[in-house]
């Protein structure tokens, strides 16, 4: 169906009359002429509703998160979190910016070069002292680089009173640093652990290095992962939304034929974004045939062969929250008997493991992984593949059953995988099988790679499959493939 958006675009081309176009659109809200360094409900009302600082999350929720992290801190603790660094492809060409998850979780701020400090001082009337720093809002920056939120707009947007320009941050870090006993610092994962400060914004890097010489440093993850692991209602809504959009995209691409892995990758990304996701949550795996034997195959540049299967591991990101889905389906008009038998075996294991994702089961992800290997061994025996426990875990199914998801694809990775699952955690369940081309294994199974992965909301008694819209039953996939079209 032709949407109103395209209709109005057509009118604009025809008449060039903005007022006419607006009068034709029933939902147009008046936009503020103020500028901000990120989408706001004032300037981008098609993205955010009044009160929302980021999609589905209000400024008040961000304030509550800061209160909660301060409550976990001891007297004399200083928490330093900073924006992610802008990363460069080459020369002046930068990669699409992505905010640091811990900083985003506490602020909802999407600008680089921003800093949040929280100092816990017992002898103060307030529970904690907070200082927030944003890049200066200058006409030069706004002309050349993009809009900036700045101090005055920042107070309205973030509901934070103490905001200063970021060049003042070194002085406040010095002052808070002298008063603190230990520092919790937000090292960005992906930077060499040897140099945890390397990823700090230029404006504060030297000062943080100085402080590192004087005070004990610990990871901010120690404070933030225990909070981030339990998702709020609005976070669950974001994760569900990302899952719905991504699940629909899978349904669409399963009903289509592709010549090349890259084309399938492009169509998925297109559907994630057109559905409302900001981006792909990670570089997807689009692995035709034996390419799937490589667990994290991401070159995605091969051509599909007749009667192979394609293993796809891809998901979209919405409001910072990601979804993680893997599906495997035939590139031809349906499963061969060998493909179907192996697929059904993995699917049976996956469904049984999903059923274990409840807080009442008292099971941990590590324990569910153990169960998955036992279940897979049994399923494979039924179809004539006999492997020892170590062959299953080291050769056929060498990765773990899953991980948490949230603001990161491997969310809260510092959590202990042996602790029992808790209500409102979100985990993936993703058993797989990767049969080497090796005569140790039956000829009919060699070279087949399958992974089936859903994003699961842990309930007390019942798990909720967020990614249920992505087809996974044999019959469903068979039907989509039989009716597939170019
Ligand atoms: Mn995964």
TrEMBL record:
Phylogenetic classification of the source organism: Eukaryota, Fungi, Dikarya, Ascomycota, Taphrinomycotina
Annotated GO MF terms: manganese ion binding; metalloaminopeptidase activity
Cofactor (UniProt): Mn(2+)
Xref: InterPro entries: Aminopep_P_N, Creatin/AminoP/Spt16_N, Creatinase/aminopeptidase-like, Pept_M24, Peptidase_M24B_aminopep-P_CS, X-Pro_dipept-like
Protein's GO biological process: protein processing; protein stabilization
Family: Belongs to the peptidase M24B family.
Residues covered by the Aminopeptidase P N-terminal domain: 57-194
KW Metal-binding (keyword) present: yes
Domain of life: Eukaryota
Gene Ontology CC: mitochondrion; nucleus
Protein's name in the database: Intermediate cleavage peptidase Icp55
Coiled-coil regions listed in the entry: none
Keyword Transport in record: no
Pfam families the record matches: AMP_N, Peptidase_M24
